[in-house]
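<given_protein>
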Amino acid sequence: MSKRLGKGLGALIPELEIGEEDKVIEIPLNQLRANPYQPRKHFNEDGIQELASSIKEHGVIQPIIVRTVLKGYEIIAGERRFRASQASGLATIPAVVKKLSDQQVMEIALIENVQREDLNAMEIAIAYQAIIDQFSLTQEELSVKVGKSRSHIANFLRLLHLPESIKQYVSRGTLSMGHARAIVGVKDDKVKKELTDACINGQWSVRQLEEEIKRREELASEDKEKPKVKDKKKDPYLHQAEEQLQDHYRTTVRIKHQNYKGRIELMYYSKDDLERLLEMLQGQIS
C-alpha cells in the first residue's frame, strides 16, 4: 500500500506517491538543502516547534521526498519535517529519492503548498506567475495542473497589479484576499491606497468595502454627467492641506473653499471609524 501525502494530492502529484518499490533511506540533515522553487517564504515557527515535539516523541512517520543534486540532496516535499527534525536535534531523516525534472520540482512545490493552504495570497500569486513564466503555460494549462478553476488563477494573478504597499498588507494578512480583490478593480492607485487605509482603520467587511467602491463610482459618474462650468485647478496650498489632514486622520479629507470661506469634510466608513475620528478631534480640543 502506498503512503499518501494528503487528500487529493496523490491524484494531482502522482510523483509523490511512495510505493512498495520505493526504498526509504536515512539521509544526514547536513546533506540536504531546501527546494529553490519553494514558493513559501515564511514558516510558522510555532507550527515547526509543535511538529518538532511530535517528532521527538514519535519520530518522522512520513519520509520526505528528495532528489540527488551535485552536492547531496534537494528537498522536493517535506521542508517542514526537515526544519522540525533540525529543531528536535535529529542527525538524519527518512527519505525517498526520486528522479524529477526542474519543471516537476517547481510544480510539486507549488501544488503541495497551495493544496494545503500553507501560502498567503501574495505568495500564491507570485508562485502562479513564476510557473507561467518559467514554463510558458497559459492560465488554462496551469489551472489543470493545480486542480483549480481558471477564474481562481486569474483572481490571484490580478493581485500582482496592486501597489507594493497594499501587497505587503495582503502578505501579512492585514488585508484579506476578498478585500484585495475588491481594491484591485479600482483604477486609480491613490484611491486604492485611500480605500485600503480606510478599510484597515475602520475594520470593514468585504461588503462594506464593495459598497464604498460602488458609492464612489456612482459619484464619479454623476460628476461626469454634470455640465462643466469651469475646470478650475485646486489651490496647491489647499491640496497640500488635504494631504496633511489625510495623513494625520488616516481617512479621505476634502476641503471645499469659496470666497474666503468653506468647509472641511472628513469621511468615515463605519461607526467605529466615526468614534475613532471623534476621539482624535476631541483630544485636540481638550
Q: What stands out?
A: The longest strand covers residues 64-69. The first helix runs from residue 9 to 12. Confidence is low (pLDDT under 50) at residues 1-12. The radius of gyration is 26 Å.
